[in-house]
What we know:
The complex is a heterodimer. Helices cover 49% and strands 13% of the residues of chain A. Chain A has helices at 62-67, 71-79, 86-101, 107-135, 141-160, 180-204, 208-214, 222-227, 232-236, 244-247, 268-292, 310-313, 317-329, 370-376, 378-382, 387-397, 401-405, and strands at residues 2-5, 22-26, 38-44, 47-54, 169-170, 173-174, 337-345, 348-356, 364-368. The relative contact order of chain A is 0.18. Residues 1-13 of chain A have low confidence and may be disordered. Helices cover 23% and strands 25% of the residues of chain B. The longest helix of chain B has 12 residues, at 108-119. By secondary structure, chain B is an alpha/beta fold. Chain A binds chain B through residues 55-56, 59, 61, 63-65, 67-68, 99-100, 102, 223-224, 226-230, 240, 242, 247, 337-340, 342, 349, 351, 353, 355, 363-364, 366, 368, 372-373, 375-377, 380, 405-406, and chain B through 24-25, 27, 29, 53-57, 59, 61-62, 73, 75, 79, 82, 84, 86, 105-110, 114, 118, 131-135, 142-143, 145, 147, 149.
Amino acid sequence: MKNENNTGTDAGSGSRIATTEMTLNMGPQHPATHGVLRLVLDLDGENIKKCTPYVGYLHRGVEKLAENRNYLQILPLTDRLDYISSMSNNLGYCIAVEKLFGIELPERTEYIRTIVAEMARIANHLLWLATHALDIGAMTVFLYCFREREMILDLFERLCGARLTVTYPRIGGLKNDVDAKWLEDVKKFTDAFPGRVEEYETLINKNRIWLRRTKGIGVISAEDAINWGMSGPTLRGSGVPYDVRKVTSYGVYDKVKWEVCTGKNGDIYDRYRVRMDEFRQSNSIIRQCIDQIPEGPIMADAPKFTLPAKDKVLTDMEHLIHHFVLITKGPQTAPEGELYVPTEVPKGELGFYFVSDGSGKPYRMRVRSPSFVHVSALPRLCEGELIADIIANIGSIDIVLGECDR
Amino acid sequence: MEPLEIAERLKEKFLNEIVDVSRFRDQVFVKVKREKVLDICRFLHDEPDIYMDYLADLCGVDFPGRRQRFEVVYNMYSMRHGHRLVVKAQIPENDPTVDSVVPVWNGANWHEREACDMYGILFNGHPDLRRILMPEDWEGYPLRKDYPLKGPEGYEYKGFDEIKELHTHDKEWNIQA
Lengths: 406, 177
């Protein structure tokens, strides 16, 4: 933190201290802003009069780049949006493109996608809990969370070779199938995980500092949260049962039993509770999916849009040409039209809005990122509260600036 | 309510404002003139059986060559009724302005700033219309179709040398090469 304009002086009258407003710059290089977020705070003593967020430090122009690449080439860009849970971003993109093209997926793919999406949700919430707790003084939980996150990243590595930027899903399917051993190990993880969640809860649930710093802080009513466009656990903390997994159909969320977790008061504590409940729900979804998963192909039967199998490409001329055309020019038979497709990523509603003109490249790709909307609502959460609460507030809305700035 | 029914209701209320209603997959797109966008949005938000309380997304699209070059796309959803509708306002190139919908949805604030930053569309009545993702002194509108992918014409990023050049007058920055 750097003090830009400290004009606060003692009036010298002896009886009371006169305060002047002071402007404090926080970020963009600050460990508690979870990335390169810069806030300019107008303070009266410790009270925040005005909070102005500045974003854009991580702007890479993904939307512009996407207009100049074909549909298959955009996939790796989506990893770099929300790099904490790149799996969910890849899936959001693939699902949007599949809806645009009208591709039906095989059942096994849907199951595997649901499993990895929920694993990504657990990994994301683990990182959120670790850093959020660290920010507001509950340091012990940090390494406990990383222990489990490491397990999920190891499983991802075995699945597709990458830990962070996975690029595992493909348009119309997946990069590779999962084996029984992998599923077994995921199941072992889910056996142990609920106990671990209880461990985190014993560390913080009765921690008085944690409770004092989260209960009744950063309150936003259900109506306001909807009006500000919030989504995901941040919205559900205010008691709105809105979850894209329930309201639109993708994955196999309609075939497994699970509940939408909601809070009541809309404060930081309730948002924390929602995410803790989601740990258990995601865990249960994964278990049910592993029990139900059928055998079958993993790529959709849509040769106009999906890449042919690699072993055929290396031996068969027609498949090689097909592969070459799709990679260099993109799908040549994309339908003309436009579509907005939302998916529920760990941070909220990730929407892709495509305008397609029938060529292999999207005419316009818009990324509606939850972090962008949540940062825009940060002044609404912070103004009128104390400066220390801003750290707790930033943590509670779970933002990643890579996704915010795109 | 079915999205097409909502479009019908809009037609009844704002007959002269609706340009076109189209449908793709399960989504309905209503193209409107820009003059009464705020009224249309307010109607969609306030009407009890439509009640679009959630603005999922707002963005601009550029169609050079069309008489109405820009489009502002309002993507709304109703939490109460669970229906979705997309309204698209038509903006001409010579006067790229449209009324801001921040009075209806607070969440539109940054989306409109971004549309302004990327396309140069001005939103009347916006509380704080500044560049958001690009630097404040940036010239041009990056997402317009005539804006080159590599950046402004003739400009080449030279990396550290350029930054050094800029700061030669600054003692703190006076780094010996």
